[in-house]
Description:
The protein is mainly α. The chain has helices spanning 2-35, 37-46, 52-75, 79-103, 123-145. One of its GO terms (biological process) is methylamine metabolic process. It is a multi-pass membrane protein. This is MauE domain-containing protein.
Amino acid sequence: MAHEFKLEKYNHKLFIILRFLLGIVFIYASYDKILNPAAFAKAVFNYQILPDSAVNITALVLPWLELIIGLCLISGIWLPGAAVISTGLLTVFMSTLIFNIIRGLDINCGCFSTETTEGPADMMTVIRDLVFLCISVYLSFKIFFSKTDK
Length: 150
């Protein structure tokens, strides 16, 4: 019994740390995009996935969604929704990265900056996003399937 208690206490601390980590990642990712929507629209356009009519609205809405998700993850407000949406977004982000790598497009990720100095998207970018996705999936499972209160 004592061992289970320590394990649950450890899992709860891990849950909180990962929530904060992922929340900070989403807030950081939103910052430059919110400040430079035109540059982010160009990054979205360069992915060559969305129709032209959806590029600007995506560039305007997505960074604010990332900011809200980050704030929700950190504050614990609307946590189930934030965890599910972050998992969905990270899945879409990874899919678009992989899709464009397979297509051979040498594009700037646009993940954390609208600057081209971030470098082109590559498999390391996918691996980084996979780590974030694993954290998000872990948080979602803890929220929806854990038998204890958060």
